[in-house]
UniProtKB/TrEMBL annotation:
Species: Neogobius melanostomus (round goby)
Name by which UniProt lists this protein: Scaffold protein ILK
Domain of life: Eukaryota
Cellular component terms per the entry's GO annotation: cell cortex; focal adhesion; lamellipodium; stress fiber
Keywords: ANK repeat
Any GO MF annotation of the entry: ATP binding
Positions of ANK repeats: 33-65, 66-98, 99-131
Similarity comment: Belongs to the protein kinase superfamily. TKL Ser/Thr protein kinase family.
Residue ranges occupied by any Protein kinase domain in the UniProt entry: 149-435
Database matches in SMART domains: ANK
GO biological process: cell-matrix adhesion; integrin-mediated signaling pathway; substrate adhesion-dependent cell spreading
Length: 473
C-alpha cells in the first residue's frame, strides 16, 4: 500500500481516513523533504482530504524544508477554495519561506489573480520584500499589480517597501513536521536519550526530564519504585533494561495543558475566538473517542487532560489511560465530573453523557477563565456536586449562544445531553462567524446554534497519545 503522502497527493480520501483512524499514526509527520500530508493535499488541490486533515488536527502553518507552508503551495497552484479554508483556520498569510517569498509572491508570479486578491483581503502585505528585494507587486503582471495596489491602499496598508528580515533563529515562528519515527517505535534504547533537566516530581515518586531523541524535543516520564506487576509494556516506552526504571516519552508541547494556559500565567491570551477554537478541537477529539468500542477506560475529560500544541491546537492527552498508577475509583478532578458519575458505579453510568457534562464545565472554564469551584477542596467539591446540587454559575456578559450550548450540554438528565458529533457543526459555525466578523453574528448564530434535532455528522480526532506537560502528571 502506498504511504500517506502518496494517498494525500492522489486524493484517496478512503485510504487517508483509514490511516487517520489508526491513532498510532502522526498526521503531522514529514516526508524526506519535510512535506506533511497537508502540504501534499494543498499542493494537489485535494479539498476533501484537506478538510479531513484539518479536522483531525493538522498543523496549518507547518513548514517543509524550504520553509513553504501549505498556504504557499495552495496559492501557487491556484486552489482558491483551499486557500480560503487555510485562511479561516488562521494560516499566516505573510509567512516567508527560505527565499523570503510569501504566498502572495507565488500567487502573483503564477498569475493566480483571484487567490492574490483573497490573500490581500485577508491581510497579506503587498510590500514585503523577499531576499532579493522583490515585493509581490514586482512579481505581478501590470493589471494585477494595479488591482492589488489599489486594494491594499483602500485597506490602509503602508505601501513603502518592507525589507526582508531573516527570522530563522527566532525559533517560535517556525513549525516543522515531526519525524515520524517517534510514533513508530515499540521500544527505545535508553542510551539514545539525551536528558537535560528535571522539570517536576510528584508525590507518586515519578519525575520528568526534558531532552532530545533523534532530533525531537521530548518529555521523559520516569516511574520509580513500582511493583514488578505494574511494569506494563507501553507503545512508546523505554524497555527496562537497559533503562534503570520504566519510562515513557512523548513530544514536548511548550504551552503545556489548557489548565496551564488559562490559569497559570502564560503569555498567551485566550480571547473569545480562541476559546471557541479550543472547544471545537476538544469536541472533535471526543467525537472520535466516542466512536471506539469498547470505550477507553479511566479517561476523564478536564482542562488538565487537554494539551496545547505549539500551533495552538487543543489535543486530548491519553497519558494516564494505558499506563497509569492512579488509584482505581478515585476522582482526582471532581469539579469536571458529572453528578451521576460521582453518585454511581462506573458500570452504571452512560460514559458518553457524563463526558458531555465534563465538556460543559470545560466550556464554562474557557469563557470565564476561572477554575471551577476554586475555593473548595476536591473532597468538598465531589460531595457538594453529588449530594447538594452544587453547579457553576454563569456570569453576565457571556455570549448567549455559548450559554445556551453550555446549558444543553449540562442537562441534569443525562439522556437529554447531546452527542459530540452533534455539537461539532455548531462550534464550527461559531468559529467561522468569529473569524469572518471578529465577533459573533447574532442572526447567524441564532439560525445555526443548538439545533440538535438534525442527524449526527461525525468529525473526529484531536488526540495525543501520552504525556505532554509535567505539571499534570
Amino acid at each position: 500500500m502506498d504511504d500517506i503522502f502518496t494517498q494525500c497527493r492522489e486524493g484517496n480520501a478512503v485510504a487517508v481516513r483509514l490511516w487517520l483512524d489508526n491513532t498510532e499514526n502522526d498526521l503531522n509527520q514529514g516526508d524526506d523533504h519535510g512535506f506533511s500530508p497537508l502540504h501534499w493535499a494543498c499542493r494537489e488541490g485535494r479539498s476533501n482530504v484537506v478538510d479531513m486533515l484539518i479536522m483531525r488536527g493538522a498543523r496549518i502553518n507547518v513548514m517543509n524544508r524550504g520553509d513553504d507552508t501549505p498556504l504557499h503551495l495552495a496559492a501557487s497552484h491556484g486552489h482558491r477554495d483551499i486557500v480560503g479554508k487555510l485562511i479561516q483556520c488562521k494560516a499566516d498569510t505573510n509567512a516567508a519561506n527560505e527565499h523570503g517569498n510569501t504566498p502572495l509572491h507565488y500567487a502573483c508570479f503564477w498569475g493566480q489573480d483571484q487567490v492574490a486578491e483573497d490573500l490581500v483581503t485577508n491581510g497579506a502585505q503587498v510590500s514585503i520584500c523577499n531576499k532579493y528585494g522583490e515585493t509581490p507587486l514586482d512579481k505581478a503582471k501590470p493589471h494585477l499589480r494595479e488591482l492589488l495596489g489599489e486594494k491594499a491602499e483602500k485597506l490602509g496598508q503602508n505601501m513603502a517597501k518592507i525589507p526582508f528580515k531573516d527570522t530563522f533563529w527566532k525559533g517560535t515562528t517556525r513549525t516543522r513536521p515531526r519525524n515520524g519515527t517517534l510514533n513508530k517505535q515499540a521500544g527505545v534504547d535508553y542510551k539514545q536519550l539525551s536528558l537535560v533537566a528535571k522539570i517536576n516530581e510528584t508525590n507518586l515518586e515519578r519525575y520528568l526530564r526534558t531532552g532530545r531523541w533523534q532530533g525531537n524535543e521530548i518529555v521523559v516520564k520516569v516511574f520509580k519504585d513500582i511493583l514488578p506487576s505494574q511494569r506494563a509494556a507501553h507503545a512508546r516506552g523505554c524497555q527496562s533494561p537497559p533503562a534503570p526504571h520504566p519510562i515513557i516519552i512523548t513530544h514536548w508541547m511548550p504551552y503545556g495543558s489548557l489548565y496551564n494556559v488559562l490559569h497559570e500565567g502564560t503569555n498567551f491570551v485566550v480571547d473569545q475566538t480562541q476559546a471557541v477554537k479550543f472547544a471545537l478541537d476538544i469536541a472533535c477529539g471526543m467525537a472520535f473517542l466516542h466512536t471506539l468500542e469498547p470505550m477507553i477506560p479511566r479517561h476523564y475529560l478536564n482542562s488538565k487532560s487537554v494539551m496545547i500544541d505549539e500551533d495552538m491546537t487543543a489535543r486530548i492527552s491519553m497519558s494516564d489511560v494505558k499506563f497509569s498508577f492512579q488509584c482505581p475509583g478515585r476522582m482526582y478532578s471532581p469539579a469536571w465530573v458529572a453528578p451521576e458519575a460521582l453518585q454511581k458505579k462506573p458500570e452504571d453510568i452512560n460514559r458518553r453523557s457524563s463526558d458531555m457534562w465534563s465538556f460543559a464545565i470545560l466550556l464554562w472554564e474557557l469563557v470565564t477563565r476561572e477554575v471551577p469551584f476554586a475555593d473548595l477542596s476536591n473532597m468538598e467539591i465531589g460531595m457538594k456536586i453529588a449530594l447538594e446540587g452544587l453547579r457553576p454559575t454563569i456570569p453576565p456578559g457571556i455570549s448567549p449562544h455559548i450559554c445556551k450550548l453550555m446549558k444543553i450540554c449540562m442537562n441534569e438528565d443525562p439522556a437529554k445531553r447531546p452527542k459530540f458529533d452533534m455539537i461539532v457543526p455548531i462550534l464550527d459555525k461559531m468559529q467561522q462567524n468569529f473569524l469572518e466578523a471578529g465577533i459573533m453574528s447574532e442572526t447567524t448564530a441564532l439560525r445555526t446554534s443548538i439545533s440538535l434535532q438534525t442527524g449526527p455528522s461525525l468529525k473526529s480526532g484531536h488526540i495525543v497519545g501520552i504525556l505532554r506537560k509535567p505539571k499534570d502528571s
